[in-house]
Amino acid sequence: MAEHQKNVDAVTGVSTTGHEWDGIRELNNPLPRWWLWTFYACIVWAVAYWVVYPAWPLVSGYTSGVLGWKSRDAVEVQLADLRTQRGAFAEKLQQASLAEIEASPELLSFARAQGRAAFGDNCAPCHGSGAAGSVGYPNLNDDDWMWGGSLEQIHQTLLHGIRSTDADAHVGDMPAFGRDAMLPRPDIIAAADYVRSLSNLPVPAGVTPDLTKGKEVFEANCAACHGADGKGNIELGAPNLTDGIWLYGSGRDAVIASITNGRAGIMPAWGGRLDPTTIKALTVYVHALGGGK
Amino acid sequence: MNMAIKVEKLEEPGDDDAPLYEARRKIYPIAVHGTFRRIKWALLIVTLGIYYLLPFLRWDRGPNAPSQAVLVDLANGRFYFFFIEIWPQEIYYVTGLLILAALVLFLMNAVAGRLWCGYLCPQTVWTDLFQAIERMVEGDPRERREKLKTASRSQRAFEAVAKHTLWLMVAWWTGGAWVLYFADAPTLVWQLFTGTAPLVAYLWIAILTFTTYVLAGHMREQVCTYMCPWPRIQAALTDEYAYNVTYRYDRGEPRGSFKKSEALRAAGVPSGDCIDCKQCVAACPTGVDIRLGSQLACIQCGLCIDACDTVMNKVGRPTGLIAYDTEMNIQRRQQGLAPVAKVFRARTLLYAGLIVIVGGIMVATLAMRGSEGVSVIHDRNPLFVRLSDGSLRNAYTLRIVNKQSLPRRFAIAVEGVPEARLEVVGGISETENGHPVVEVGPDQTYELRALVSTSAKLPANASLPVTFSVTDVIGGETTTAPDHFKGP
């Protein structure tokens, strides 16, 4: 009896667990019954969960549960829902012309969102995630277009590519004037200096450009594609040499290298690889980046 | 000595282990009559009336907007409260409201105890209603105990079915009213009765019917004593000047039966007013004895005051043996001093002050908020673009908000960049004084791409602060958003 009382707290009359820390004893207040039941229910729930859903890892695989539920299937259902939700808009996008898409704020917004995703998946490896490009890969944010920057022209470029295997691809060759021995090196250097002068690029120290000779060489060899004034020709993909944008760099060495070895960047044809609606969305997205004409 | 006891205890634990759970003592409070009961009935009718009927109140907001006074429109992300409309990004108003509610709770507590718990808390109100239904069907506790012995099995079964049916009906109505706050109430009621309401509505009604039935019918005071954190907090918010439902032990003790105390008094021996009839305990919805003093389980509903006053009137002693009183006044009366009422104390003034400040800030921001908004994000990649003529361009995403229920046209302008040219991609049809104009639908946001170009020569690593401004073409209201213009 004496021992019995030792495990009862004198003040509250509640029994203790027998544990004591620095004179503080832990009371053993009983739980409410509903709490205990909830606790048991949780245990039952957990066991039922093991049976019904995937739960335990095995040596190869796992217990799949009687429902056969898979997270992969759940994703499929969600994706199907998404396609259904997009259905109406996607259909409109399919029907609408490029100009109609740009004129309708909600279609434009939908096309740009879809275009942004498609761009990230397909175009970003070369053009960069923000379409800022790099040397040899054009920046699509600016207003300089080798093959034209209208909706229709961008659409054509996307469909058929540039120097691609597509029969309707843009084709235009910048000859390798040096490598193929079409011009002697001094002529190439003179032409390079002349071309750089067209857009007022600074002359490197110690260089005295022979612009008269350069002009002669240019008119004889380059003007056919780039035009007598050097403003280029989008029919041939000949870039404008008088502006501030240089796909392969504006340095003297870079320009000499371009004339010596030629340039023939390739863009794949996306027609047939992407569905027409996605190509439409990409066209609108690229056009709306800011440089579209 | 102490050490020895400790060792002994550690070696012999559990020889008197407590039970695994505490069996619940079911509480059947008696019906009381009096001031506080009447106040509680009135508040019950008012609060439940508001809850059940508010969704049907109409409020004209003009075209393109719902006409329900209080509506949480989850699909469109809007909260309507009479003349106020809250957008998701204005959730801080709800935060402010919650802060305000907490402060009001604190103030209530510092002034007059657990007014919330005793009179206004949904758990209290619905439990009160459910207990009233229980008494209506099964009778008062005494009657109920009699019936357990005398009534036929069929009568008791009938009463049990009647009680639970009535409870479930109230619970169902409670859940039904809840969903009405999330959709147009009259339409949803029609849909519910014709079976065409969305599945989620039925689901929520079922969930809330279940919780109401369980919490108010079965859990009752256990919600207050086991589940609610508020009783734990409120002990820290009261003090000796706070009015609480108090047993005036200075008057009541020593307690004793009426006959005994009358005999003692006749003999000139002091005897307290409490006749130990235990009516205060019988009336208590949480089953506590108020004479033990303030305690966690006491929700301070005042029903023991009514019960005690009734008895005091019967035995011809002054009422108010249990009353709203302060600890300080009991002590002062014991010392023969006059009671004091000190409502203006540091804590009440602090709470009141905070309420005024928070409320003031909320009212001011609500009154000053505009009916339009603009936010801007600079393109991260590329930060800037060199154009063919050598000029620089930065691209931004603008989001324009029209909070009015009519379509509006906004002129967009940018300042801070020399020789700036502004172009906008997306649905532009006109310009106003050379500024591009966009139309934003009623109660909508519109996202567009803004391109700012300049031919001016900028210093290296330039980052010029720029300001986009959006002006309502007709109303003239202007909103601005800052950003930067980056250069190489």
From TrEMBL, chain A:
Binds 2 heme C groups per subunit. Its cofactor is heme c. It is found in: Cell inner membrane. Heme c 1 binds at residues 123, 126-127, 267. The keyword Nuclease does not apply. The chain crosses the membrane at residues 34-52. One of its GO terms (cellular component) is plasma membrane. SUPFAM superfamilies: Cytochrome c. Residues 110-199, 209-290 form the Cytochrome c domain. One of its GO terms (molecular function) is electron transfer activity. Coiled coil: none annotated. Keywords: Cell inner membrane, Cell membrane, Electron transport, Heme, Hydrogen ion transport, Ion transport, Iron, Membrane, Metal-binding, Oxidoreductase, Repeat, Respiratory chain, Transmembrane, Transmembrane helix, Transport. It holds the Pfam family FixP_N. The keyword Iron applies. One of its GO terms (biological process) is oxidative phosphorylation. Belongs to the CcoP / FixP family. NCBIfam families: ccoP. C-type cytochrome. Part of the cbb3-type cytochrome c oxidase complex. FixP subunit is required for transferring electrons from donor cytochrome c via its heme groups to FixO subunit. From there, electrons are shuttled to the catalytic binuclear center of FixN subunit where oxygen reduction takes place. The complex also functions as a proton pump. PANTHER family: CBB3-TYPE CYTOCHROME C OXIDASE SUBUNIT FIXP. This is Cbb3-type cytochrome c oxidase subunit. It comes from Ancylobacter rudongensis.
Automatic annotation (TrEMBL), chain B:
GO terms for molecular function: 4 iron, 4 sulfur cluster binding; metal ion binding. GO terms for cellular component: plasma membrane. Residues 265-295 form the 4Fe-4S ferredoxin-type domain. The chain crosses the membrane at residues 41-59, 91-112, 165-183, 189-216, 349-368. InterPro entries: 4Fe4S_Fe-S-bd, 4Fe4S_Fe_S_CS, Cyt_c_oxidase_cbb3_FixG, Electron_Trans/Redox, FixG_C, Ig-like_fold. Pfam families: Fer4_18, Fer4_5, FixG_C. Gene3D superfamilies: Immunoglobulins (2.60.40.10). It comes from the Bacteria. The keyword Transmembrane helix applies. Keywords: 4Fe-4S, Electron transport, Iron, Iron-sulfur, Membrane, Metal-binding, Transmembrane, Transmembrane helix, Transport. NCBIfam families: ccoG_rdxA_fixG. This is Cytochrome c oxidase accessory protein FixG.
